[in-house]
Amino acid sequence: MTGLIFLLSQVRLFLPQAACHNASVEGFTTHSGKIAVLDQDHVDTDRIIPARFLSMVTRSGYGALLFKDVRSDDFPLDRPEAQGASILVVGTNFGCGSSREHAVWAIQQAGFKAVIGKKTPQSTAFSDIFRGNAANCGLLLIDLDSPEHEYIASLGAGARVEVDLPDQEIRAGSRAFRFEINSATKDALVRGLDLIGTTLLHEGDIDAYEHERGPLAPNRL
Description:
Elements: H1 2-12, E1 30-38, H2 45-48, E2 87-90, H3 101-109, E3 114-119, H4 128-137, E4 140-145, H5 146-154, E5 160-164, E6 169-172, E7 175-178, H6 183-191, H7 195-200, H8 203-213
Parallel strand pairs: 1-2, 2-3, 3-4
Antiparallel strand pairs: 1-5, 5-6, 6-7
Helix pairs in contact: 1-8, 3-4
């Protein structure tokens, strides 16, 4: 436990400049919304948010840049039926490639509350790094097996789907599908905690640890 508190105390040193922290993170319980379907596999982070935009010094303004280099009148997210969608349905291995929180920010700032991906025997629904960034920034990722995913995708853009995080269930029409999620990630999402908010839950322990240890300084003779 002492080792954990030490690590958390080091994290707290960087809180003022930590990228993902957002005091307005909302807790996620249930959400009903329209889906947009981008049923493509192996969509990498450079397609989600092109690398040239990573030099921006603000955390806002990324929603309009989502899939910037592949947008067109017939792009799935630009079709009339997808307007106002808040649940994004993607293929397998979504978010592969280089690590960048900006990919998560762009999805969130474009209005999406959750992303539904497809897991197969050969591939996970989301890349590990993207999954970690999403959890740290408060974006719900849902893994579905191929048959369940194909049913949701077949409903088409504009269909309404309900996501129930406490019960870990997706409801569409008369059908319902259960999904699995890491318990710590689920708890943070329900409570509206990003990575920093989770760290600050231990602020009392961190303060006590730092008081006991005193300032870090070289030993003096």
